[in-house]
Design a protein that fits this description.
Length: 272
């Protein structure tokens, strides 16, 4: 199993998009990969780190090794908000984790999708889970993101309701501040939808969440349970009911291609 984090932010983010990317990568390295950031690859398959940045979709990419020692070179390339950036930490043929960013433009609406993949060995440890949430808070505190999530074993860019409602990614991204794209163990909700839900105080009062953490620039992190394994079907049902007023309507259906997509099999539109 893997722990997967993903956040999308758009032109309504309240700081420069390149600045957001730099903070995401910097926090990921500092909190999760600092011990191996300066390691080098060897013929014995020892740990190594590498990074790459592509200024545009078709252009050449800059590649650096020993990311810790070459961090400034990497970070400078993030400032103009590149199309693609990638940070990998590997031992032999096994990926320990990665931090990743993809810029997408749909009908003139610019989005960045940033992801972080980590091993899930400590997913039942409350202290470790708190570290995951704190990483997300620090990385996003000045942003008001359009959407985000932390969960286990779900595909890059597609949230559970994108999959279960067969929503096209283009539409889902475009409507991020009108409809919450999904829900998970930790859900990142934009300020526009927090207000429609009655504010963070109302979400705390719903008793559907273990923690509700306000972000300084707007929006909130909604943590459903203390640990990832604690996100049971019963807990997920409470989260669904609390967020139903801002979820897209429609009857969700399982997709055999995405067996790890967890959702409540109810139409959120019927609960409004």
């Amino acid at each position: 199993m893997d722990v997967y984090m993903e956040v999308t932010f758009d032109q309504l983010a309240r700081v420069g998009q390149g600045e957001v990317l730099a903070r995401w990568f910097r926090e990921a390295q500092t909190r999760f990969f600092s011990v191996i950031a300066d390691s080098e690859t060897t013929d014995k398959g020892e740990i190594f780190s590498r990074a790459s940045v592509a200024a545009d979709m078709d252009g050449p990419s800059l590649r650096v090794g020993q990311v810790g020692k070459n961090w400034k070179k990497f970070e400078v390339q993030l400032t103009p908000f590149p199309w693609w950036a990638d940070l990998d930490y590997v031992t032999g043929d096994v990926t320990l984790g990665w931090a990743r960013s993809v810029q997408s433009t749909y009908e003139g609406y610019c989005n960045a999708v940033v992801g972080l993949l980590l091993g899930a060995e400590k997913r039942a440890n409350g202290t470790y889970c708190a570290t995951l949430v704190e990483f997300l808070r620090v990385a996003l505190d000045e942003v008001n993101p359009a959407f985000g999530r932390i969960e286990q074993d779900l595909s890059f860019e597609r949230a559970n309701l994108d999959i279960a409602l067969h929503r096209r990614l283009r539409r889902s991204l475009r409507e991020s501040r009108d409809h919450l794209r999904g829900y998970a163990w930790v859900t990142v909700c934009p300020q526009e939808l927090i207000e429609r839900l009655g504010g963070c105080e109302a979400l705390v009062a719903s008793n559907a969440f273990y923690r509700v953490i306000s972000l300084l620039a707007g929006g909130a992190l909604l943590q459903a349970s203390e640990t990832l394994p604690g996100y049971s079907d019963e807990v997920m049902q409470k989260v669904f009911e609390a967020l139903a007023p801002v979820l897209p309507a429609g009857a969700p259906q399982p997709d055999p291609a995405h067996p790890h997509a967890r959702f409540v099999a109810q139409d959120a539109g019927l609960l409004r």
